[in-house]
């Protein structure tokens, strides 16, 4: 099955990590959490989920993974200030590998400059950012554009998980 890189730091949206990971692992896929430091516990913004990172970004090679998962919350905004995460995310888009980004997750892709002419969705507060990045914004629960699956909020998780798993087959 697929090996999925999940890029994340503190302040991720708890359910936007836990629900997809449960579905991915239930489908036989492996999820590796990549953060600024290896072995560091990162905490969701609601304090419900605590996750230990598997690898530090400097030790992660994007070519070792089949797909990229970017949970929402404030984490993607923090990560996009670090060029290592930006380059890591860009690799997946450039190589047409599956990328799953929910809520604020597309912020990392905006900074990676890979959304021009792509159909995408995201949390309400980033709609204009997506449009300014050249994306074709769609206000739908899930948008699939070639290798990219995006959704808006935790309410969209069933559709996000379903479409993400389809891309992994």
UniProtKB/TrEMBL annotation:
Belongs to the peptidase C56 family. This is Protease. The keyword Hydrolase applies. Residues 3-166 form the DJ-1/PfpI domain. GO terms for biological process: proteolysis. Keywords: Hydrolase, Protease. The keyword Protease applies. It comes from Alteribacter lacisalsi. It holds the Pfam family DJ-1_PfpI. It comes from the Bacteria. GO terms for molecular function: peptidase activity.
């Amino acid at each position: 099955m697929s090996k999925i890189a999940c890029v994340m730091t503190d302040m991720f949206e708890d359910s936007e990590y836990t629900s997809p990971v449960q579905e991915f692992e239930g489908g036989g896929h492996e999820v590796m959490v990549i953060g600024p430091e290896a072995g560091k516990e990162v905490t969701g913004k609601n304090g419900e989920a605590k996750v230990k990172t598997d690898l530090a970004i400097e030790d992660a090679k994007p070519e070792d993974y089949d797909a990229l998962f970017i949970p929402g919350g404030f984490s993607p905004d923090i990560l996009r200030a670090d060029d290592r995460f930006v380059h890591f995310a860009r690799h997946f888009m450039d190589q047409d590998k599956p990328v799953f980004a929910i809520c604020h997750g597309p912020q990392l892709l905006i900074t990676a400059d890979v959304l021009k002419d792509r159909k995408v969705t995201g949390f309400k507060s980033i709609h204009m950012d997506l449009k300014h990045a050249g994306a074709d914004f769609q206000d739908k629960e899930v948008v699939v554009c070639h290798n990219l699956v995006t959704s808006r909020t935790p309410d969209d998780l069933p559709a996000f998980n379903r479409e993400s798993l389809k891309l992994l087959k």
